[in-house]
Amino acid sequence: MSLKVKLQLILLFVIFNPILGMAQTLSGRITDVKNQPIEGVTVLFHRTEQHTHTNVFGEFELENVIKGDTIVVSSIGFKGKTILISDVFNELIIKLEEEVFELGEITVTNEIDALNIFTDIDMLTSPVKSSQEVLRKIPGLIIGQHAGGGKAEQIFLRGFDIDHGTDINITVDGLPVNMVSHAHGQGYADLHFLIPETIDKVDFGKGPYYANQGNFTTAGYASFQTKDRLDQNSLKMEYGSFNSFRTLAMLNIVDTERQSAYVASDIQLSDGPFQSSQNFRRVNMVGKYTNRLANDDILSLSLSRFSSEWDASGQIPIRLVENGTIGRFGAVDDTEGGSTSRTNLKLDYTKKIDKTSFVKNSIFFSHYDFELFSNFTFFLEDPVNGDQIRQNESRQIVGASSEWNKFFHHDIAIKGGLGFRTDRVSDVGLSRTLNRKTTLEDIQRGDVDETNIYAYASAEFELGKWLINPALRADVFSFKYNDATATLYETQSENAGILSPKLNILYNQSDKVQYYFKTGVGFHSNDTRVVVAQNGTSILPAAYGSDLGVIWKPTSKILINAAIWTLFLDQEFVYVGDAGIVEPSGRTTRSGVDFSVRYQASNKLFLYGDVNYSRPRSRDEPENNNRIPLAPEFTATGGIDLLDFDNFSGGFKFRYIADRPANEDNSIVAEGYFITDFNVNYTLGNMIIGLSVENLFDSEWKETQFATESRLFNEAQPVEEIHFTPGTPFAIRGGITFKF
């Protein structure tokens, strides 16, 4: 080797050795201006094309960082920052300031739940203001109410008439909302204990592709996360059409850097638009305490209580409205109604093991009571007393879970979880009644004891622009039922288990385009009473799904999601709680297209839209008789939001559902509707004056519809036709909010 070459090598070593020697793993923590950790912040390192996200403690790590490198941090609702690295040895502390939403700062990154960008945007541009809006934050989801406001909503999503929750898993802070083996229907999900103003984040996913989501996750899941602390105290009062009144109080009790505690309560009253007053009353109370301990562990305790009671006019036959016997807001039996209550206690403890791993632990308890009086067929079964029924139960739920999370540098992450849930339902019953007072006959009555034990494992491998996420979930169920109407005491029992593999593949072409393919197996359990009656047949029918889609940001002001999907169910069943029977529907297939767009026209004006098409069909029926009753085929939602213009904010929003079959051969059709709502707010110092209008153009629409065979008192023969609950007419509500 010549002297010249040696000198060149020595020179290169002298120049680059200090730099190479300085390459380190950079540790950082990102907080808001109040020193509260921010989870899910995107951290981009352009030199190596690395990216990562902050964990629940607001922490992140990046490899091979040297002095002089730059990183870019961004999070929805916060002002992004570009950071010049001047010290790679000490932890980097970054504080982000909140700002008016800017779509231009959002990047598309390799995340399994990247679609949550859309709900994050919606929560910032149009916060939830009523219990009816809570589930509508899920793109493509439509709801309907048909029992005076106190009953859980009927849900439509991805070609499913989900009834009250059979095919969507719903949780609040990890607390399960769905009720197994419920008196009124399998998976019954009453979300009314959630005060809308306490919602901090909405996490959702469509399809059965997520290992930490179990029973009822076929069409998808919705997970609501409440605030750990309040930005301000607030008092709100609203009054509107039909003697509707609501008052809300949200108050901080403790507000320090490490600890926070608040209480919130609201009361709602309404007579409704019906000729017979609904006499609706709901009371909600919630308290939440969070402590970020000195070792960075997080302790959280929440307690909530809700109670509701109401009268209802029920579903009315269209023949009586068309011949003028009753009006749209009249009734055949106005003695329907009910009452319900739920008390929840939940303790969460997140244990930090080291910089790259932590464990989330939870334990919860719920006590729930339910009583519902309905009359769907009038005098079909009992021509003398009528067909009113009572459904009731008293339930206790106990559960616990633990999830371990581990990150290996920036390219491998694994998690594993296990847990259980036990429901003990006392005196779950169905009986024939008269005028909500006299019990004529017990159809079903007994005690249910149902337990679900589960475990799951999931891994994420980042290979350049690819992210591979294989996962596996295992569920085991124990079903026990004591029939109180039986002559002899007997505990009927069955057991079953199911394995649910998942695979998600993502390809990030750039920070503006992500392609994804998701596939997996999910399930919904059957009702315990049906399971033991059928000797364990069709206990846990599986659902097999696939999604192929893209998240695309063609310009800095537009974000698009488009997907084609399919879902196959081994056995679709409808538990008809009103009759105490199960109706197996056989194998079904759904396929469709989802399309969502978010567009920021200016820094004050935001437009959004979701369009969904599906083709739901029964596989084992002939072509002329294979429709799935009430399953939606085309839905659309959208609107315009004014964020803040000279102290004014507000917007228009619409929802549309097309005509759909009400029975298998499509001979009876449930009419579609197009409804527009409007709201405007004016901020004056610490006071906000608001006005909202439902059904702005006073459309006559049917909120819920069923093809039902019924007979009136003076009819000789029954008639099968549409029975419906009318949608709210033009309704106006004004309110005032004080913040302090």
Number of strands: 45
Poorly predicted segments: 9-21
Overall pLDDT confidence: 91
Second CATH tier, the architecture of the largest domain? Beta Barrel
Q: Radius of gyration from the CA trace?
A: 27 Å
Q: Share of helix among residues?
A: under 10%
Q: How far from one another are the termini? A: 78 Å
Task: Name the structural class.
Answer: mainly beta
Please describe what this structure looks like.
The chain is globular. With 740 residues, the chain is mainly β. It has two domains: 97 residues, Immunoglobulin-like (Sandwich); 611 residues, Maltoporin, Chain A, CATH 2.40.170.20. About 2% of the residues have low confidence. The chain has a 22-stranded antiparallel barrel. It has five helices and 45 strands. 41% of the residues are buried. A hairpin with a 4-residue loop joins strand 2 and strand 3.
What is the element layout, followed by pairings?
Blueprint (H helix, E strand, L loop, with lengths): L2 H20 L1 E9 L9 E4 L4 E4 L5 E7 L4 E5 L6 E4 L7 E5 L19 H10 L5 H4 L7 E3 L9 E4 L2 E4 L4 E5 L2 E2 L1 E2 L8 E2 L9 E8 L13 E7 L7 E7 L3 E12 L3 E12 L9 E13 L5 E15 L3 E2 H5 L13 E19 L2 E18 L14 E20 L3 E23 L3 E26 L2 E18 L7 E20 L2 E11 L4 H6 L8 E14 L2 E12 L3 E4 L4 E4 L3 E13 L4 E14 L15 E12 L2 E10 L2 E2 L7 E2 L2 E12 L2 E8 L7 E9 L8 E8 L4 E9 L1
Parallel strand pairs: 1-7, 11-16
Antiparallel strand pairs: 1-4, 2-3, 2-5, 5-6, 8-9, 9-10, 11-12, 13-14, 15-16, 17-18, 17-45, 18-19, 19-20, 20-21, 21-23, 22-44, 23-24, 24-25, 25-26, 26-27, 27-28, 28-29, 29-30, 30-31, 31-32, 32-35, 33-34, 35-36, 36-37, 37-38, 38-41, 39-40, 41-42, 42-45, 43-44
